[in-house]
Write a sequence for this structure.
Protein backbone atom coordinates (compact mmCIF):
# COMPACT_ATOMS: atom_id res chain seq x y z
CA UNK A 1 0.00 0.00 0.00
CA UNK A 2 2.78 2.38 0.98
CA UNK A 3 4.66 1.58 -2.22
CA UNK A 4 1.54 2.23 -4.33
CA UNK A 5 1.12 5.64 -2.71
CA UNK A 6 4.77 6.52 -3.30
CA UNK A 7 4.62 5.38 -6.93
CA UNK A 8 1.32 7.23 -7.41
CA UNK A 9 2.78 10.37 -5.87
CA UNK A 10 5.80 10.19 -8.13
CA UNK A 11 3.53 9.72 -11.14
CA UNK A 12 1.47 12.74 -10.10
CA UNK A 13 4.57 14.90 -9.73
CA UNK A 14 5.84 13.76 -13.12
CA UNK A 15 2.50 14.52 -14.76
CA UNK A 16 2.33 17.91 -13.03
CA UNK A 17 5.81 18.85 -14.21
CA UNK A 18 4.93 17.83 -17.75
CA UNK A 19 1.68 19.77 -17.48
CA UNK A 20 3.53 22.99 -16.73
CA UNK A 21 5.47 22.67 -19.98
CA UNK A 22 2.30 21.78 -21.91
CA UNK A 23 0.43 24.70 -20.40
CA UNK A 24 2.99 27.11 -21.79
CA UNK A 25 2.86 25.49 -25.24
CA UNK A 26 -0.94 25.32 -25.51
CA UNK A 27 -2.54 27.84 -23.16
CA UNK A 28 -6.12 27.25 -24.30
CA UNK A 29 -8.21 24.09 -24.22
CA UNK A 30 -9.87 23.05 -27.48
CA UNK A 31 -13.63 23.55 -27.69
CA UNK A 32 -15.61 20.72 -26.09
CA UNK A 33 -16.90 19.36 -29.41
CA UNK A 34 -13.39 19.14 -30.89
CA UNK A 35 -11.62 17.43 -27.95
CA UNK A 36 -12.11 13.91 -29.22
CA UNK A 37 -11.17 14.87 -32.79
CA UNK A 38 -7.38 14.51 -32.57
CA UNK A 39 -6.65 14.90 -36.28
CA UNK A 40 -9.00 17.88 -36.76
CA UNK A 41 -11.01 16.38 -39.63
CA UNK A 42 -14.37 17.24 -38.05
CA UNK A 43 -15.24 13.68 -37.08
CA UNK A 44 -14.10 11.18 -34.47
CA UNK A 45 -12.70 7.85 -35.59
CA UNK A 46 -13.11 4.68 -33.56
CA UNK A 47 -9.41 4.84 -32.66
CA UNK A 48 -9.71 8.46 -31.46
CA UNK A 49 -12.81 7.59 -29.43
CA UNK A 50 -11.43 4.46 -27.79
CA UNK A 51 -7.87 5.72 -27.36
CA UNK A 52 -9.17 8.88 -25.69
CA UNK A 53 -10.86 6.87 -22.97
CA UNK A 54 -8.22 4.18 -22.59
CA UNK A 55 -5.37 6.70 -22.82
CA UNK A 56 -6.57 8.64 -19.80
CA UNK A 57 -6.62 5.47 -17.73
CA UNK A 58 -3.29 4.22 -19.06
CA UNK A 59 -1.72 7.57 -18.16
CA UNK A 60 -2.60 7.09 -14.47
CA UNK A 61 -1.76 3.38 -14.34
CA UNK A 62 1.53 4.02 -12.53
CA UNK A 63 2.66 0.39 -12.26
CA UNK A 64 1.46 -0.52 -15.78
CA UNK A 65 -0.44 -3.61 -14.63
CA UNK A 66 -3.55 -2.86 -16.72
CA UNK A 67 -5.62 -1.88 -13.68
CA UNK A 68 -6.16 1.53 -12.12
CA UNK A 69 -6.48 1.57 -8.36
CA UNK A 70 -8.23 4.20 -6.29
CA UNK A 71 -4.83 5.63 -5.30
CA UNK A 72 -3.67 5.86 -8.91
CA UNK A 73 -6.93 7.57 -9.88
CA UNK A 74 -6.53 10.09 -7.05
CA UNK A 75 -2.93 10.81 -8.07
CA UNK A 76 -4.13 11.39 -11.65
CA UNK A 77 -6.88 13.73 -10.45
CA UNK A 78 -4.37 15.74 -8.46
CA UNK A 79 -2.04 15.95 -11.46
CA UNK A 80 -4.91 17.22 -13.67
CA UNK A 81 -5.79 19.84 -11.05
CA UNK A 82 -2.19 21.01 -11.02
CA UNK A 83 -2.15 21.17 -14.83
CA UNK A 84 -5.39 23.16 -14.78
CA UNK A 85 -3.93 25.60 -12.28
CA UNK A 86 -0.81 25.96 -14.43
CA UNK A 87 -2.95 26.64 -17.54
CA UNK A 88 -5.06 29.19 -15.67
CA UNK A 89 -1.96 30.95 -14.43
CA UNK A 90 -0.43 30.96 -17.93
CA UNK A 91 -3.62 32.49 -19.37
CA UNK A 92 -3.61 35.22 -16.74
CA UNK A 93 0.12 35.98 -17.01
CA UNK A 94 -0.16 37.88 -20.30
CA UNK A 95 3.47 39.03 -20.41
CA UNK A 96 4.85 35.65 -19.31
CA UNK A 97 7.03 37.05 -16.55
CA UNK A 98 5.88 34.55 -13.92
CA UNK A 99 3.79 37.05 -11.97
CA UNK A 100 0.21 38.24 -12.35
CA UNK A 101 -0.23 41.97 -12.04
CA UNK A 102 -3.46 43.60 -10.98
CA UNK A 103 -3.96 44.80 -14.56
CA UNK A 104 -3.58 41.25 -15.93
CA UNK A 105 -6.00 39.92 -13.31
CA UNK A 106 -8.56 42.64 -14.07
CA UNK A 107 -8.24 42.06 -17.84
CA UNK A 108 -9.01 38.35 -17.47
CA UNK A 109 -11.92 39.09 -15.16
CA UNK A 110 -13.34 41.68 -17.57
CA UNK A 111 -12.98 39.26 -20.49
CA UNK A 112 -14.79 36.56 -18.54
CA UNK A 113 -17.59 39.01 -17.74
CA UNK A 114 -17.92 39.94 -21.41
CA UNK A 115 -18.17 36.28 -22.43
CA UNK A 116 -20.84 35.68 -19.82
CA UNK A 117 -22.77 38.73 -20.99
CA UNK A 118 -22.61 37.47 -24.58
CA UNK A 119 -24.04 34.13 -23.48
CA UNK A 120 -26.69 35.87 -21.39
CA UNK A 121 -25.50 34.43 -18.11
CA UNK A 122 -25.83 36.21 -14.85
CA UNK A 123 -22.92 36.19 -12.43
CA UNK A 124 -22.76 32.80 -10.82
CA UNK A 125 -26.02 31.82 -12.49
CA UNK A 126 -24.76 28.88 -14.45
CA UNK A 127 -24.64 25.75 -12.38
CA UNK A 128 -21.80 23.71 -13.75
CA UNK A 129 -21.12 20.35 -12.21
CA UNK A 130 -17.41 19.82 -11.77
CA UNK A 131 -15.79 16.97 -10.01
CA UNK A 132 -17.63 14.52 -7.90
CA UNK A 133 -17.88 12.06 -10.78
CA UNK A 134 -16.16 8.80 -10.28
CA UNK A 135 -14.45 6.84 -12.96
CA UNK A 136 -16.17 3.69 -14.13
CA UNK A 137 -16.24 1.09 -11.38
CA UNK A 138 -14.23 3.04 -8.80
CA UNK A 139 -16.86 2.44 -6.13
CA UNK A 140 -16.46 -1.33 -6.68
CA UNK A 141 -12.69 -1.48 -6.84
CA UNK A 142 -9.90 -1.17 -9.39
CA UNK A 143 -10.74 -0.37 -13.02
CA UNK A 144 -9.55 -2.93 -15.56
CA UNK A 145 -8.42 -1.01 -18.63
CA UNK A 146 -9.31 -3.86 -21.05
CA UNK A 147 -12.92 -3.78 -19.82
CA UNK A 148 -13.12 -0.03 -20.34
CA UNK A 149 -11.74 -0.50 -23.85
CA UNK A 150 -14.43 -3.07 -24.66
CA UNK A 151 -17.19 -0.79 -23.32
CA UNK A 152 -15.79 2.17 -25.28
CA UNK A 153 -15.86 0.12 -28.50
CA UNK A 154 -19.49 -0.85 -27.81
CA UNK A 155 -20.36 2.77 -27.07
CA UNK A 156 -18.74 3.91 -30.30
CA UNK A 157 -20.79 1.38 -32.26
CA UNK A 158 -24.00 2.77 -30.69
CA UNK A 159 -23.16 6.35 -31.68
CA UNK A 160 -21.82 5.53 -35.18
CA UNK A 161 -25.30 5.37 -36.71
CA UNK A 162 -24.22 4.72 -40.31
CA UNK A 163 -21.45 2.27 -39.38
CA UNK A 164 -18.74 4.06 -41.38
CA UNK A 165 -16.18 3.98 -38.55
CA UNK A 166 -16.52 7.70 -37.80
CA UNK A 167 -18.78 9.72 -35.52
CA UNK A 168 -19.83 13.10 -36.86
CA UNK A 169 -21.23 16.01 -34.90
CA UNK A 170 -24.68 15.18 -36.30
CA UNK A 171 -24.47 11.59 -35.03
CA UNK A 172 -23.42 12.82 -31.60
CA UNK A 173 -26.29 15.30 -31.49
CA UNK A 174 -28.77 12.62 -32.57
CA UNK A 175 -27.47 10.26 -29.89
CA UNK A 176 -27.77 12.98 -27.22
CA UNK A 177 -31.34 13.78 -28.33
CA UNK A 178 -32.25 10.09 -28.17
CA UNK A 179 -30.79 9.81 -24.67
CA UNK A 180 -32.71 12.91 -23.52
CA UNK A 181 -35.91 11.45 -24.95
CA UNK A 182 -35.37 8.12 -23.16
CA UNK A 183 -34.80 9.91 -19.88
CA UNK A 184 -37.91 12.04 -20.26
CA UNK A 185 -40.21 9.03 -20.80
CA UNK A 186 -42.10 7.97 -17.69
CA UNK A 187 -40.88 4.76 -16.12
CA UNK A 188 -43.10 1.75 -16.82
CA UNK A 189 -45.38 0.89 -13.95
CA UNK A 190 -44.35 -2.30 -12.21
CA UNK A 191 -46.97 -4.71 -11.01
Amino acid sequence: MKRTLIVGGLAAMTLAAGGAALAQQAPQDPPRAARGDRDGDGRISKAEFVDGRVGRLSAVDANRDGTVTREEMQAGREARRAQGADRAFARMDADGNGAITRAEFDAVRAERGERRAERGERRGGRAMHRGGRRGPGMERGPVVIAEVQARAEQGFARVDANGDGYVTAEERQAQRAERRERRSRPAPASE
